[in-house]
Amino acid sequence: MRTPKLTPLAATLPATVPFVGPEAQERQRSRPFQARLGANESSFGPAPKAIAAMQAAASETWMYADPESHELRHAIANHHQVAPENIMIGEGIDALLGLAVRLYIGAGDPVVTSAGAYPTFNYHVAGFGGAIHSVPYKDDHEDPDALIDTAHTVGAKMIYIANPDNPMGSWHHGDVINRMIAGLPDGCMLVLDEAYIELAPADTAPAIDITTTNVMRMRTFSKAHGMAGARVGYVIGATETISAFNKVRNHFGMSRISQAGALAALEDPDWLADIRQKVEAARERIGAIARRHNLAPLPSATNFVTIDCGADGAFAREVLDQLIARDVFVRMPFVAPQNRCIRVSCGTTEQLDVFEAAFGPALSAAREKLG
Amino acid sequence: MRTPKLTPLAATLPATVPFVGPEAQERQRSRPFQARLGANESSFGPAPKAIAAMQAAASETWMYADPESHELRHAIANHHQVAPENIMIGEGIDALLGLAVRLYIGAGDPVVTSAGAYPTFNYHVAGFGGAIHSVPYKDDHEDPDALIDTAHTVGAKMIYIANPDNPMGSWHHGDVINRMIAGLPDGCMLVLDEAYIELAPADTAPAIDITTTNVMRMRTFSKAHGMAGARVGYVIGATETISAFNKVRNHFGMSRISQAGALAALEDPDWLADIRQKVEAARERIGAIARRHNLAPLPSATNFVTIDCGADGAFAREVLDQLIARDVFVRMPFVAPQNRCIRVSCGTTEQLDVFEAAFGPALSAAREKLG
């Protein structure tokens, strides 16, 4: 037998994981983490009503989920005051980004993103043969003007921006995003990742305009709603944009339990308001911890705080390693100059207690080692 | 603004659902089904231990699932006496079929399947630009010799066969599949869909041989394990075949709850043995109902029975419509001559009671209408 050959494109792709999961690190260390603050998961958990809905749905999981996600899609549409035809549900933003890239990006098509922005987007672009053009951050913000300028220069078919941004926690006013949209090159799709939007100031999200056929907005139940492991995201867009997903999506791909949980979460705005307060308090506490060690926390509109460790990437990496050695799972930006920082997720009091106790010793150890 | 253009391939794809879900039909009818026997879901439900595990995991769903599915992958590997490197977990066989096609099939690449076999496979092949070559069924079985012959003729890069088969319920001895493997053209991948294998006679599955680099075997928790809505499937294959999935898969795509449920299901062989008996009894009962109406049930190695309605596709379609009108959700093969049949899933006593009560009147109404 001759082993079947991968497609020429697949043959060029590396078999890598964009992120190593905390469980893999725990297996390597042979020791569990005491604080899980590296993946911007919400240790406040899902809404109790969402948990109850998922538990109730467990015995119904012999049935495939409704491939049209009718109930959830209608509820989300109602929530945003758009039509159900303007909403596409999918298995988290990761999956939806993959489908978006597959729909619009072919071999060699130019795509613009920021250097150090969400690597899973780049993974998908590479996976479909697109050509990434990266624009530097500016003052720890993604740079809308530079993204648009570069898109014009290279003839980009797609631009990615996250607002608020991950991994820096920074954000732009909705007006800035609207200016970006107005400046898009002809035929270029803006993928606006709003994974953290529920935790940002109200004016961060531009008004939803479903007549705009060159913008798709990505939302998720993974962050504020605390359901990362459920894999529920959605796209808001023009009818024709949304409809295109039906060409390539895995129609029966949604978990039935996850659909039930997301619906219950959406119907509990009081709980979400409570989470916003908890996240804000956690942001303040992480900021205070950083300042107590004479380090600068970056302003954040997300459920994490990025801490400037005050030196270079090697030092921040050492601080991170020292935290991990003290059983605190955190991550860091991986492109300079953002990689002078570490990124700490907002968590429960217990989780932040562990972080607080470990941070001073981790800093000292890092200074001793590299100083 | 000029609306962004889809890739040339995506532009050619229809925005269709391979199957209309029963919920969509219920919405159209404005009435729920009384028996849900159309999608080969297992109304016997998941194992109680799996339900308990999923309920326990609901509050942990703030965490992403382990992207390596370490625990589940190791348990499945142990179950099959292979290495974890020979197992790839994914969001159901549907998602894994999509990835398999993406890895191996590019524009114009010939792919061979049976006329009327699993349409979601064809959906994926079309979605990546492959060229489907269909081979007729032979005596209501997929035809291994014809599949292999056609693959040689057209220079196929991939062959799909389901053993046992859906929608006919027929199966081949594992020796027949081994002969197929031996006859594969050089560089052609056999995708062996064994979604129903736990319900088939023991000699239906060839021995697992992970040195074979031109076969990938697909398994699922959707059928015998009754977890269709959880979306857990896996591939068994050679290390290099399995590793290739890491190039394109959605690494953080698995539901955490689903992983927990699948693990618990796998660790409950007694429950699976009980399901096998229940499915066998349901097969016998569906067969007896068919015979009582002088119709021939086809032999089945799956959790459904395909009933030959004794006339043409139009008549079977009318019987199906009459069943649906009587609140019984069933489906049927959609290619002649298999479309002379309807397909009824094995279900609980209550579900089959509804089917039994409806079947006679549905047949009479169909005969009256078309006779």
Structure write-up:
- Two copies of one chain form a homodimer.
- Chain A has 371 residues and is of the alpha/beta class.
- The first copy, chain A, folds into two domains: 127 residues, Alpha-Beta Complex (Aspartate Aminotransferase, domain 1), CATH 3.90.1150; 220 residues, 3-Layer(aba) Sandwich (Aspartate Aminotransferase, domain 2).
- In chain A, 41% of the residues lie in helices and 13% in strands.
- Chain A contains 13 helices and twelve strands.
- In chain A, helix 6 links the parallel strand 3 and strand 4.
- In chain A, helix 3 runs antiparallel to helix 10, helix 11 packs parallel to helix 13 and helix 12 crosses helix 13.
- The radius of gyration of chain A is 21 Å and the shape is globular.
- In chain A, 57% of the residues are buried.
- The mean pLDDT of chain A is 97.
- At the A-B interface, helix 1, helix 2, helix 3, helix 5 and helix 9 of A face helix 1, helix 2, helix 3, helix 5 and helix 9 of B.
- Chains A, B: Pathway: Amino-acid biosynthesis.
- Chains A, B: This is Pyridoxal phosphate-dependent aminotransferase.
- Chains A, B: Belongs to the class-II pyridoxal-phosphate-dependent aminotransferase family. Histidinol-phosphate aminotransferase subfamily.
- Chains A, B: It comes from Yoonia rhodophyticola.
